[in-house]
Q: What sequence folds into this?
């Protein structure tokens, strides 16, 4: 997961890395949390199933962090347009 964090950094995206209970989590933006079991990365793609109304998730193999980072960066760009940082968070950002 650290490799993915580095690749996102190369794209100008900072993220917070958290570990615990056999999983790693990368907090990127509002509604963009990437998690990994070591073999793949998963994140919400922004869609809902028309049959179940549940969230749909994107996945990418963990051994290709640069490609996963580009896909996550595209989702990040979409979210930045629709989910801007809230005022209290923006005021405390460096």
A:
């Amino acid at each position: 997961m650290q490799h993915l964090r580095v690749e996102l950094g190369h794209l100008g995206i900072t993220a917070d890395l958290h570990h615990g209970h056999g999983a790693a989590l990368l907090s990127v933006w509002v509604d963009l949390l990437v998690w990994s079991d070591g073999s793949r990365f998963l994140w919400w793609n922004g869609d809902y199933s028309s049959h179940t109304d549940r969230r749909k998730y994107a996945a990418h193999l963990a051994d290709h962090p640069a490609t996963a980072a580009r896909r996550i960066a595209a989702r990040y760009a979409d979210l930045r347009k629709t989910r801007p940082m809230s005022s209290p968070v923006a005021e405390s950002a460096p």
Summary: The mean pLDDT is 90.
